[in-house]
Amino acid sequence: MSKTLILAEKPSVGRDLARHLGAKNRREGYIEGDKYIITWALGHLVGLADPEKYDEKYSKWRLNTLPMMPEKMKTVILPGARKQFSTVKKQLLRKDVDKIIIATDAGREGELVARWIIDKSGAKKPMYRLWISAQTDKAIRDGMAQLQPAAKYDNLAASALARAEADWLVGLNITRALTTRFNAQLSAGRVQTPTLAMIVAREEAIARFKATPYYVITANGAGVRWEWQGKDGNRIYSEDAAQALINKLRDQTGRITGIKEKKRKVNPPLLYDLTTLQRDANARQGMSPKDTLHHLQRLYEVHKLVTYPRTDSRHLTEDLAASMPDRLAALRSGPYGAVVKEIISQKAQLPAGFYNNAKVSNHHALLPTEVRPGSADLNQHEHFIYKLIVERFLGAFLGPAEVQDTSFEAEVAGERFTAKGEVTLNAGWRAVAQAEAATVESDEDEAPVQALPRLAKGQALKGLTSSKNERRTRPPHRFSEGTLLAAMENPQAFVDDAHANKILKESGGIGTPATRADIIEKLFKNFYITKEGKSILPTAKGRQLIDLVPADLRSPLLTAQWEERLAAIAKGQEDPAAFDADMRHFASDLVQAVKKSEAIFKHDNETATPCPDCGKLLLAVEGKRGKLRVCPDPACGYRETVSQKTGARCPQCRKPLVIIQKDGHKLYACNSCGFRDRFDRFNDRHKGGQKSTRRDVAAYQKKQAKEKDIGANAFADAWAAALKNKDQ
């Protein structure tokens, strides 16, 4: 009997498909049933070949061998993937397999995963596509009933291949050119370089900024905080003028000259796409974009609680309206039961504006699935991400929030004062959904919104107390990971060209929702950026790189133009060959620009410690998770950890602890007060349940004073709590 081979992207997805299709015979690397054989990739099993596979001369990095322009790009089985590829290939070529179903992730990259594997295997059989946005039984059942010929997605596959080959041609050529020309580990790319350029530009703007002092005059009276308003706003740039105004207002009685009340509606925010979810998670809990995607992927693949994660849409297709009752029913017995019952009893619907087929590309906005969350064993991060998605979803059913804005005007000694207040009349979506995270920061001063008492026009304001508040204009804020995501999505502020801004807006900015988190992590890994608290700063290496990279590669417009053309290829509107030809010319031009450069790269972080492998002096670098020493020779690649950041706090000064190595032992260290001790010793103490005393602290302090190296307690928070309880 003939069988159908289904190729999934990951083992977990393969197991879900097998369970749904009744395939129960587990084999190594696949599962077989009466009608179906389900196997899987492990992400990419096949990729583009390294340069040395084309010519032996590329095995060594030399400037005179560039640019590298293979006539036809080759694919190879990736390191570590040979065993699973062999398994998949055998199943694809089985004589009893007469049909192939591609069930990798429904997107550009997922399409490439499957096409490369099938092409490398040599399989020539009819192919179909399973395109689903959730891993639930219902989604799989509906998807299997609506299989499409794989040829329908040939243009998407062509777009994916064009992107991969262009990144190889541009990325590898410019990286080798920079590294060999300047004798340093340098890399560049059409997404990471403009992202780094934005960070460097922001830091330069901060450095150029000169703070200007100014004064804001406020007065308190009748239970209201009033703010002075001049002809040009609320700022006074002369201290003498500010003090003169204070003197003028002293012992004066004011009068309310105007009251305005206006009701308005605040519509619920659109549903999440990946980027807005990552921004909110970073703003509210400091989660990195990469961590957010990881936990979201588990909610999708493992727990089946949310729809496809890597979406760039905040809208839904109209056909999803019929699924809303089932999604609501899944939430009825949980903590949102009362809200769901209210929605059902009122027969509330999602606003019509949430449905827009034209604004959904490959996948709709993030939604909770029809699976009940009660039995899911979620960790705290998964619970937080799921909570955000559910609250945004339910809040939309509750409709707009209704508020009443009130503004008062008063006159005091001929001067104008104002106060603003807001009263919620109907919470609407705000009753359940958290407000949109603030990702745009401003240095503007606005009068605070306050709860205002009932006052009458003409009412006297007696006993006013006024004060002048000195402030300073603020420089632009440094990026956090959340605001950097926002800038990557909307980089128009960094391009001074109307047509270019139009392209950036239509293309969705720099990179894609699926790749932005990895790009930020790559910048950290390459030591181009570092963090201070939540703020991202460029390193000296990162700043120098932007000066060395050709201007065309620094512009956000480049990647936007690429994405625009790749989208056209996916729609069958552009020839991939024309795109490839342009990329080859572009890569060649970049290499020539680097060759002609007369710039010099200087390591300003060289240590006196030689590399144990090649003897070159190691460089001291600040990574995202701690301090390292790395070899400057890219051919060597040696690196060692000096100290690693932790979430623990020093029991003496409450400053963050780091992990260091001393004489082969792992220590926790406090760089502020010098407290330290061996990690394993405190680990044993903690597990044994022993309580620490003040005598313990005194002993450690005495011991640490005798030694030069710093250290700290691995269980600082637990220890500090024990001491606090003892004192009480």
Structural key phrases:
single chain; 728 residues; alpha+beta; Topoisomerase I, domain 2; eight-stranded mixed β-sheet; seven-stranded mixed β-sheet; 22 helices; 26 strands; TopoIII; EC 5.6.2.1; DNA topoisomerase type I (single strand cut, ATP-independent) activity
Q: Would you kindly provide a written description of the structure presented here, covering whatever features stand out?
A:
Strands 10, 11, 12, 13, 14, 15, 16 and 17 form an 8-stranded mixed sheet that branches. A hairpin with a 2-residue loop joins strand 21 (617-623) and strand 22 (626-630). The chain contains 22 helices and 26 strands. The termini are far apart. 38% of the residues lie in helices and 21% in strands. It has 728 residues and is of the alpha+beta class. It folds into 5 domains: 3-164, Rossmann fold (3-Layer(aba) Sandwich); 165-207 and 478-596, Topoisomerase I, domain 2 (Orthogonal Bundle), CATH 1.10.460; 213-267 and 403-472, Topoisomerase I, domain 3 (Distorted Sandwich); 274-397, Topoisomerase I, domain 4 (Orthogonal Bundle), CATH 1.10.290.10; 638-727, no CATH class.
Could you outline the blueprint of secondary structure elements for this entry?
Elements lengths: L2 E6 L2 H11 L3 E3 L2 E3 L3 E5 L5 E3 L26 E3 L4 H11 L4 E7 L4 H14 L5 E3 L7 H9 L2 E2 L4 H29 L9 H17 L4 E9 L2 E6 L9 H11 L4 E13 L7 H12 L3 H13 L22 H7 L6 H9 L34 H18 L3 E12 L2 E12 L22 E2 L9 E2 L3 E8 L8 H9 L8 H10 L8 H10 L3 E4 L2 E4 L1 H9 L2 H4 L1 H15 L5 H21 L9 E5 L6 E7 L2 E5 L8 E11 L6 E7 L2 E5 L6 E3 H9 L6 H13 L9 H12 L1
Parallel strand pairs: 1-4, 1-7, 7-8, 14-15
Antiparallel strand pairs: 2-3, 3-4, 5-6, 8-9, 10-11, 10-17, 11-14, 12-13, 12-16, 13-14, 18-19, 20-21, 21-22, 22-23, 23-24, 24-25, 25-26
Helix pairs in contact: 2-3, 3-5, 5-18, 5-19, 8-9, 8-13, 9-12, 14-18
